[in-house]
Amino acid sequence: MTFERKTLTATIVDDNDLAVAGLETLLTPYAERVRLIDVRTALAHPEDVDVVLYEPMQQSSYSASMLRNLQSAAEAQAVVFSWAPADMLPDNTSPYLSKSMTAAQLVVALEDIVSGRGVPAPRVHTPAEPVEPVAPIRTPQAPAGSRLTPRELEILTLITGGLTNGEIGEELGLSINSIKTYIRQAYRKIDVERRTQAVAWGMANGLVADAEPVAV
Question: Keywords on this record (predicted)?
Fold first, then answer.
């Protein structure tokens, strides 16, 4: 069976016109995989936007305002796109992609973020600080034919368990924008529009996380 790849729609909020023009040129050979639109078009049709790339370094008040407007109007994933290293960024809650990436690497990274495979938000650790692994949440098997990714299934299970978006973000170590993106993708796949419908779907399909053993 041939897999049909979804064309992603992205926009970029960057005060450097050269950076914007350069990104447009880089992505031209990959037009079937990533469609780049300007921020005004994105604001006019926020429901079409999958990813909002932005440069946080020396951001003007205009760009900051545009970014806020996009984040409030769209449920797209916000992604830092910068030359600066991760440990110098003012915002370390969004996924981070470096402008030093090749076009091919950038396209794959964007597809991973939107698909749910994800690029983790950058976190700064000193050399002496151990990085603690995140314990996975045990979730049921995805219902046959649902096409849910493991992360989408995990989040639907937590929704079914009554957690809010903020609580899910804290549980999984993800930004609220990432949680909204996964929820939006999951809702499309299970054909629901509201949280109450998602909970009902989860209950009907047995999405109840395994309970931890209780010490006695």
Answer: DNA-binding, Transcription, Transcription regulation
